[in-house]
Write a structure and sequence with these properties.
The structure is a homodimer. By secondary structure, chain A is mainly α. Chain A is about 60% helix and about 10% strand. Chain A has a 3-stranded antiparallel β-sheet. The radius of gyration of chain A is 20 Å and the shape is globular. Chains A and B meet through helix 1, helix 5 and helix 6 of A and helix 1, helix 5 and helix 6 of B. Chain A binds a DNA duplex through helix 4.
Chain lengths: ~160, ~160
DNA sequence: GTTCAGTTGGTGACGTGTCAACAAGTCTGC
DNA sequence: GCAGACTTGTTGACACGTCACCAACTGAAC
């Protein structure tokens, strides 16, 4: 309230910055909605489901819950809840870990594997249709750059999505 | 399942495309979390709250619910729920519309106005700190461009976020 | 061995967003 | 004026994510 300088003269966003900020926010809202819609319609999956499944396709189709959470940058709590729901739909199941009675594996079921394999081509097509095929190679490159610059500081010392 | 061509040879994402796609998704997850955290901490608002309030600051600090929903590209249902919650916190209130008994205005309360005015400088600073000040003018320009290209088709003939 | 700090994962309560259904009101054409 | 179509906004059920908390377990120091 009384801190004099920080609040004093805010440097507002200029036109380009405002345009970029709105672009980012609208994409978060509309682009995500569109891609999620496609995914739900032709595979019955949410984007979150798709992510879990695709991060689970490895040599043996299983990962420790913590490892999976860290990899996806989800909180363990979020993942635990989500796994519970996916378990009820038969897409994954939990399994005990030998040698660490606290731990649990998340394992892709055959149905889960079938589902992700059938969903993948359509999902890629959807990402292409709504995003990639509208951008020039240069724009795609810059988008990647932006991610590196913005996410670098957050992924390191950032406030982890830990519980 | 048996449609031969569309599913046949999916054009997977190349390296730059994958990098851009991951960048977009990680930003959606981490950048949003960071900016929301700041906003919650120093103004007690969610990003959604902030948006509603800032879209409500006009000459007379009021808008029709539908108009506000369209402007924000929210569904009327979402907005109605959210307004109910903000109403309970004293940030906005509903008011009847003369001449259309179905309608209702959403009106900024004095407390709502104070809140947004106090929150704005810190929020801008947060957007700068986490995003804008990390980007070159060129990157900012391209991000705006990307928004135009991607959102154009969605905002027009897109599946409206209507109820 | 025992202690104790740290880790792993789960849980319940809560705020949020979506979807489908709905009531009430308005508008159009006749 | 009135039937039928459309609009406005609300609601309830549900899926999701966060937060705070917890129980069970592990591992290192002593």
């Amino acid at each position: 309230m009384t801190t004099p300088e920080p609040r004093a003269r805010p440097r507002w966003l200029n036109d380009d910055e405002m345009r970029a900020w709105l672009a980012y926010r609208r994409m978060r809202l509309l682009l995500s909605a569109e891609i999620n819609r496609d995914l739900a319609q032709d595979a019955g999956l949410s984007e979150a489901d798709y992510d879990v499944l695709s991060n689970l396709t490895t040599t043996d189709d299983r990962r420790r819950l913590s490892e999976l959470a860290a990899r996806m940058q989800w909180s363990k709590s979020r993942l635990s809840h989500h796994i519970t729901r996916m378990e009820q739909r038969g897409l994954v199941r939990r399994e005990e870990v030998d040698g660490d009675a606290r731990g649990s594996f998340v394992v892709l079921t055959p149905q889960g594997r079938r589902t992700i394999e059938q969903a993948a081509p359509g999902h890629v097509a959807s990402v292409r249709r709504h995003l990639m095929d509208r951008l020039t190679p240069e724009q795609i490159r810059v988008l990647g750059e932006i991610g590196d610059v913005v996410l670098g500081p957050l992924e390191d010392r950032g406030h982890d999505p830990e519980d």
